[in-house]
Design brief:
Chain lengths: 354, 497
């Protein structure tokens, strides 16, 4: 496979064991913020790949499927939209990851929203310090966002000793990037703009290489920096001041967070349906999300211990997370369970595995 | 203080460029002004100077180009003029609120035309004394112009609602018909408006058209042009994809530093490419018409049209980006057989086909609907057509003074709209025909070009290929190459002492 996104896609497809459609792998790599996609990412332990190929279009995806099929890397599955990975496909994935080693620090799910904000601030911070220490106080800011400009202005004025600020910033960037490969660190520094010139764009840095791959590598660098700063703020006071307000995104969709708030206040399922004036099925989705992401909820009034255990057991035995298959197994043993119960049980069980 | 002193104190320029002072004087008198200035003729200072030096009141600038407005705001702020901002649809809700709340603080406010349609915003504006309303790229008002924008149609109406403040209409290219249309739509009294029409003719830009056989020929000519000029160049194409392909190809073939630029790229990436080009770390830009507006790079030596433009007005605007330093420069059009099919296809594509019009009307139009409701009805795919349809209906008087639809007579509306579309297409094809005529000219190209704009040519240091002119010789610049530094060195250069 010549394309990085195809390698990722086929890799994910094989991790999904034909439980999900090809499109769900696509949504995951695009970083679609839907309950289902987030649920899949968590259930199949693919959170780090979330949003790794954000610019993938439907059209290109269709072409990719066609191409992968023609090369016999994937085959149509039993049902419409399902694909299996052929042995040739699995070998190609291996070879693909040799050519495109997946960034060790990239974690789409944790950092997808925060990293771009941190990066935009960092660029403007470096530009500001770089220009002003060189005696140049008028420059066109590299971020045109008013909010970012305000933040950096505040950040800059917090430091009385500007020389010390530039020394610290330099030192912290040295330290923060030191653990990465030179190639990775270069991806970040080459994009910075300052007194010695305008930075290069990712496209320019990619040149003849796979741009989507270079992008993931680069965001991996930002993720690394974010995580490093966060884990030892005392070592990175200047960078921490640029990022302290960026908490790791709550793993819940916004609407599920609202439901969680009610749930924590002790409201029941039907209370919440009434209260929020949403369809029961929507609230069910929220519950499943919460079950998979938030500690401390067992939902005993909604699903019995027996069903919980059985679902986890069947899912392991059959190596599947497909609701239909699990339900069939439960039916065979005459254990009654709704799809909602099975989903809850899977989400609760999946969390324990992690 | 004289105007010159003000100019120096506020902007640091010691003198006006030709024409600027007269226009500002008229503005200071509170008159309506129509000004057609060559691209790069220093349009923005015309309202920036009065905006900051006038005793009170807000100068409101309507411009269709969001990135251009943002650039100008940044530039002014970088020069210490802080009481300026822009409000556009790209801002978040809270950003808009924040800027609106400080309305009385701003001396200069840039807005995109659709913002004027937001009732809350308009109400707030009404509470402000408006010193001057500036309509930038005013030709967008006219459906006979090359860049008609439906959003612009309402500006005249909004001007009345704001208490008819003095109006400054600015454009780089407008034929006499378009000019009349602009005055009419902005409610500018043609007898009382001061007209300033500077020549669009740029004597230092040589005009060349090369008839080539096809894509391969074009590319090999590109290499010739590159090795002749060696200076900053812009290559205009009609397609984002071609722009990108050309950039990659040139990078492979030459040592030139080249990048693509088009509307499909992210804002920050565009900003970086633009800055690189301006400060000389890129030599060549392969771009669509999205590039160039408001970019003031004095030393562009050559503008190449890899695809032919759809009309002379766009063409003139684009080549006007060459040679702003007054040094010799060139415009080169590479024309292969059947090249005109591309703009022709695009013209047909811009407007909804007759069946689509009827279908869309049947789906969405109801009695007593307001224009706003109708505008909101289209889904994403239909939006482009939808907006055109609503504005065309508005223009043709289907809405009453409360902005409500008189009657939803689908048959008549469809017939009316179809006629409108036909006219629009015919008009654009007519413009394309003129463009084609110019490309195949056997007499002086410059004479022909200026005649289209009702001017005469005068003395030109560079003429055209028909007159036997050669590509101008320019001082040879050596190619620079980005040095591949280690990341530690790069950080040291950025932040070290």
């Amino acid at each position: 496979m010549e394309k990085f996104r195809q390698v990722l896609f086929v890799h994910l497809l094989s991790k999904l064991h034909q439980d999900r459609t090809a499109r769900s792998a696509y949504h995951l790599l695009k970083g679609k913020r839907s309950a289902q996609t987030i649920q899949d990412a968590r259930l199949y332990q693919m959170l780090e790949y979330f949003g790794a190929v954000p610019a993938w279009s439907d059209e290109v995806f269709e072409r990719d499927i066609f191409e992968l099929e023609a090369k016999n890397y994937i085959e149509k599955g039993r049902e419409e939209g399902f694909y299996t990975v052929t042995p040739a496909g699995n070998r190609a994935v291996q070879a693909g990851f040799n050519m495109f080693p997946f960034s060790r620090s990239f974690h789409g799910f944790h950092f997808k929203d925060d990293a771009p904000i941190f990066w935009e601030r960092l660029q403007l911070a470096v530009q500001t310090v770089s220009f002003i220490t060189a005696g140049n106080t008028s420059f066109v800011p590299i971020s045109s966002k008013f909010e970012v400009q305000q933040q950096i202005r505040k950040w800059y004025y917090r430091y009385d000793d500007k020389l010390q600020l530039s020394r610290s910033l330099l030192q912290e960037l040295y330290t923060g990037l030191a653990e990465l490969s030179d190639k990775e660190a270069c991806l970040l520094t080459s994009q910075l703009t300052g007194r010695d010139g305008v930075g290069l764009t990712i496209r320019q840095l990619s040149r003849q290489q796979d741009e989507e791959y270079i992008r993931t590598l680069f965001w991996g660098v930002v993720h690394h920096l974010t995580a490093t700063v966060k884990s030892s703020p005392e070592q990175f006071p200047v960078l921490h001041a640029l990022s302290y307000d960026l908490t790791e995104r709550s793993t819940l969709t916004y609407t599920a967070q609202k439901t969680l708030l009610l749930l924590e206040q002790g409201y029941s399922f039907s209370d919440i349906v009434q209260f929020r004036k949403l369809k029961p099925s929507t609230i069910e989705d929220h519950f499943v999300e919460i079950a998979g992401a938030v500690e401390g909820f067992r939902f005993n009034e909604l699903v019995s211990e027996q069903v919980k255990q059985k679902v986890v057991q069947v899912s392991k035995q059959e190596n599947t997370k497909r609701l239909k298959l699990i339900k069939m197994s439960l039916d065979a043993e005459q254990i009654e369970a709704t799809y909602f119960e099975i989903r809850l049980a899977l989400a609760l069980g999946g969390k324990e595995e992690l | 203080m004289t105007l010159e002193e003000k100019l120096y104190n506020w902007f640091g320029y010691s003198s006006f460029r030709p024409g600027q002072k007269e226009i500002i004087e008229e503005i200071e008198k509170g008159k309506d002004v129509f000004a057609m200035l060559a691209t790069g003729g220093g349009k923005s200072i015309l309202y920036q100077l009065p905006a900051f030096t006038h005793a009170s009141g807000l100068t409101l600038v309507v411009s269709p180009l969001i990135s251009l407005m943002e650039n100008q705001v940044q530039e002014l702020k970088a020069n210490g003029l802080k009481r300026v901002t822009s409000i556009t649809s790209t801002l978040t809700f809270s950003e808009k609120q924040e800027r609106m709340a400080r309305l009385q603080e701003w001396r200069l406010l840039y807005v995109s035309p659709e913002m004027l349609n937001a009732p809350t915003f308009l109400e707030r504006l009404k509470a402000q004394p408006i010193h001057l309303l500036v309509v930038d790229e005013a030709h967008c008002v006219s459906q006979w112009g090359h860049d008609f924008r439906p959003d612009y149609l309402d500006i005249g109406e909004k001007r009345l609602q704001l208490g008819s403040p003095p109006c400054l209409a600015l454009t780089a290219t407008a034929t006499p018909t378009v000019r009349e249309d602009i005055l009419k739509h902005l409610h500018m009294d043609s007898k009382r408006t001061s007209l300033f029409c500077h020549s669009m003719n740029r004597p230092n830009i040589g005009l060349f058209v090369e008839h080539v056989q096809g894509e391969e020929d074009k590319k090999s000519r590109l290499l010739d042009i590159h090795s002749h000029f060696r200076g900053p160049m812009m290559i205009y194409t009609m397609s984002r994809m071609v722009a990108e392909e050309l950039a990659v190809w040139l990078e492979e073939q030459t040592t030139v530093r080249v990048a693509a630029y088009h509307g499909g790229m992210e804002a920050q990436e565009r900003l970086m490419i633009q800055q690189q080009f301006i400060n000389g770390s890129l030599d060549v830009i392969c771009c669509t018409s999205a590039f160039g507006m408001g970019i003031n790079k004095p030393d562009v030596r050559c503008i190449i049209h890899y695809h032919i433009p759809a009309d002379l007005e766009s063409f003139v605007q684009e080549i006007g980006r060459a040679g702003r330093d007054g040094e010799r420069a060139a415009s080169i059009v590479l024309k292969a057989p059947y090249d005109e099919d591309r703009p022709e296809g695009m013209i047909y594509h811009t407007y909804p086909p007759v069946e689509t019009i009827k279908h869309l009307l049947m789906m969405y139009v109801e009695d007593n609907q307001t224009a706003e409701q109708l505008l909101a009805a289209w889904d994403e795919e239909e939006e482009l057509y939808g907006r055109q349809i609503v504005y065309a209906l508005k223009r043709m008087g289907w809405f009453d003074s409360d902005d409500q639809l008189y009657t939803a007579n689908i048959e008549r509306m469809a017939a009316h709209l179809s006629k409108w579309v036909e006219e629009r297409i015919a008009n654009r094809l007519q413009k394309l025909a003129v463009m084609k005529k110019w490309l195949y000219a056997t007499t002086c190209r410059r004479e022909m070009l200026v005649k289209e704009f009702n001017e005469t040519a005068g003395q030109n240091s560079e003429c055209c290929d028909v007159c036997g002119a050669e590509w101008p010789e320019v001082a040879v610049k050596k190619d620079l190459k980005v040095s591949e530094k280690g990341w530690r060195d790069r950080l040291q250069q950025l932040l070290g002492e």
